[in-house]
Amino acid sequence: MAERVVLAYSGGLDTSVGIGWLKDATGKEVVALAVDVGQGGEDMEAIRQRALDCGAVEAVVVDAKDEFANDYLMPALKANALYQKRYPLVSALSRPVIAKHLAATAKALGADSVAHGCTGKGNDQVRFEAAVAALAPDLTSLAPVRDFALTRDKAIVYAAEHNLPIEQSKKSPYSIDQNVWGRAVETGFLEDPWNAPIEDLYTYSEDPATPREAVEVVISFSEGIPVAIDGKPVTPLEAVQLMNTIAGGQGVGRIDIVEDRLVGIKSREVYESPAGIALIAAHEELENMTVERDVARYKRGVESKWAELVYDGLWFSGLKRALDVFIDETQRHVTGDIRLKLHAGTAVVTGRRSGESLYDFNLATYDTGDTFDQSLAKGFIELWSLPSKISARRDLAGQ
After folding, report:
1. For the domain with range 176-291+333-353, which CATH number is right: 3.40.50.720, 3.40.630.30, 3.20.20.70, 3.90.1260.10?
2. Would you tell me how many other CB atoms lie within 10 Å of the CB of residue 398?
3. Is 95 assigned a catalytic role?
4. Active site residue 14
5. Annotated binding site for ATP, which residues?
6. The dihedral sign for the CA sequence 127, 131, 137, 141
7. 207 is catalytic
8. Do 282 and 229 meet the contact criterion of CB atoms below 8 Å apart?
9. Where do the structural domains in the chain lie, given as residue ranges?
10. For tag attachment on the chain, is the N or C end more exposed, with fewer CB atoms within 10 Å?
11. Each residue of 107-160: pLDDT tens digit?
């Protein structure tokens, strides 16, 4: 039996041409793997058939939407994961689940290598290969665009010469990646960071400037996971899909950022993640109600590190696993309801309630009859500021 390579297959130009390109360059049979993470677009069966038509010896399709939502998006939500405080890791979260199925398919079919369609300039090459290395260290990772100089112009020529079933007449000026958590758009005129995004870039969200009535939605959480929206039970996948519709209809979740790529360059990116931004806003506020002060303060630093690890392709690293344990522990009491007002591109919390709340009205109120003993504050402040007072005396004496 000939050696095999399993290619992460999207159905687009680069990975379609990559099937023949890989076979020519390595002599290996190519198995195409298409993973459905809620990216929408073409029917997965059509993508599977295209892979076979382009020369794959086998084409495997995996429906990973629920797995993606349960095992990747929900940990990100618990972590309030925003890279550089703004980017909800749209592409970074999908790569480890795809890599997991790459490794599993390679093992099941006896392949000795895997491949992807990433360039040598981006983050995704690292995410795929680092994940595969952690899951199946004996596999070799190949990248035809990067390793075998498969440029886009060469790909177009190759597709034409080999009569590959790829439509090029509607070539997009942008590079787009999307899944159920959001969309990432780059290149084209966006490479000039002075150029403002145009409305044609967006498909998950409506124009926030369009006049419309505000919408309120109540999201119910159980231990950090959304379990109902407006009282209707939902799975994690359904919660994300529904919030994409509701929040996206109000223009929520648009992000325009110059980000620091792992490979060392700065890149201008436009994202839209209506569900991601709205759910994180709600989850963060419920944590404010239910998580002890010192735990909450420490968790914010953990969240930043968690987002950096995932962005940098280290989903399966030891540190990431250890931080997951901490984050899961913080979620034990993150149960309750958050009311969100969605309007003109914003998601604003207007109400919160929880049976696990640490908010005590009788302590917080300024009305007569409160249970907070203000007479204790004077002595507390004296002791709290004592180290500062002692060191200030020393500093003044030395002047």
Report:
1. 3.90.1260.10
2. 6
3. yes
4. yes
5. 8-16, 117
6. negative
7. no
8. no
9. 4-166, 176-291+333-353
10. C
11. 999 999 999 999 888 899 999 999 999 999 999 999 988 887 777 788 888 888
Residue with tokens 């030891």: 318
- CA nearest to 195, candidates 207, 183, 185: 185
Per the CB < 8 A criterion, the answer to whether 9 and 53 are in contact is no
**C-alpha 2 chain-centroid distance:** 37
Q: Which of 4, 14, 94, 141 is catalytic?
A: 14
Tell me the whole-structure pTM to 2 decimals.
0.94
Lateral strand order in the sheet of 140-142: 58-63, 29-36, 4-8, 113-115, 140-142
Task: In whole angstroms, give the CA distance from residue 130 to residue 136.
Answer: 10
How is residue 253 written in tokens?
Answer: 């979740």
- Quickly tell me which residue has 């917080």 as its tokens: 364
- The CATH number of 4-166 is 3.40.50.620
Structure tokens at 392: 């200030």
CB 90 within 8 A of CB 83: no
175: annotated active-site residue: yes
pLDDT in tens, 368-385: 878 988 999 999 999 999
Question: Binding site for L-citrulline: which residues?
Answer: 87, 123, 127, 175, 259, 271
